[in-house]
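Lab channel / #folding
Pinned by the channel admin:
"Please post every new chain as: sequence first, then the structure tokens as a reply. Keep commentary short and put observations after the output so the thread stays searchable."

First post following the new format, from NK:
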Amino acid sequence: MKHLRPAIVLTAFFVVVTGIAFPVVVWGIGRVAFPSQAEGSLVRDARGNVIGSSLIGQTFTKPEYFHPRPSAAGSGYDAANSSGTNLGPTSDKLINGIKDDPATKDVDESYAGFRDLAKAYREENGLAPDAVIPADAATRSASGLDPDISPANAALQVARVAKARNLDAARVREFVEQNTSGRALFFTGEPRVNVLLANLALDRLK
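Reply from TO:
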């Protein structure tokens, strides 16, 4: 008991401090100081319905919306399968992709490579076949959940969005500038446009 009692007391002490008290304190500070982030940075529509999170990307395909960067997380932006492609920069699969093999009926082997994604991006935005595009237009992020695109990516989508919404392109370009967030703490990261928030703002634009 001389050695057992201190071990039991210390174990109980650390269970209470690190397993109960510390998580409760952190949770309380988060709820008070950062209520939106603590709840998942949820985004709601005008009726109060949750339509997404500003931290997780989602698919937009209609021409009147800005489109996000490609995703390799599950079937796309699946938070339960967050991951990148894990393919190196010299990977043939990453660059050229894999087409469906007609001989295989049970397994879908199709994989869109960089060339395929770049071609599709240029076509949907009315760009020349050899137009230079930003990296995030045709590459997947490491998490597969990136909610943002670069201002350069958004700028190349302006003409398509303006035409689909019957808006002046100059006004949509100004809109992109207004919805571009700067570097965090003024020196880390890169300027970015949150796709979900920008598209919601577009719907409110008259």
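NK: The longest strand covers residues 50-53.
TO: also worth noting, The two ends are 77 Å apart (CA to CA).
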